[in-house]
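$ fold --in a.seq
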Amino acid sequence: MIQGNEIVMLFLGIGGLVFLWRNRKGFNRLPSEKILLIAFHILFLGWLMTVLEGFFWSNFLNYIEHTCYAASAICIAFWTFTIFKQEGKSD
């Protein structure tokens, strides 16, 4: 069964994707921006899976959803590590 907050989160994620695609040249100024963008895309995939699991393959899609959340968190942690590593080299 689909909950209202899952739909809202998906629509907010779609808005975030539109913002990223329209401003992708501005993200080039961020260090290691590709890792950050990959993390958001994986997170968005998790939000999509949580809505789709309400229609079919609930156990499988729930597993994929939580795997996406974990992978996104790992990407964010790696990006953060990369940022601090780059700042240490510039000193």
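$ fold --in b.seq
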Amino acid sequence: MKDPKKILIYIKYPYTTLIISVMWICIIAILVKTNGSHLELILALTSLVTIHLAYRGFKPIK
């Protein structure tokens, strides 16, 4: 994209990026605290939630 301002049109909820970032930072903190127990499950669930939030927050407005 040549014009970076055009990407702002596709953000339905402006705090989507912030929510996803905070969620991943917290998950990393939890994994460090628990020494990585249930690593695959936690990462799989976080990834699914991230995909869902990204789909809902970044889809084009009709």
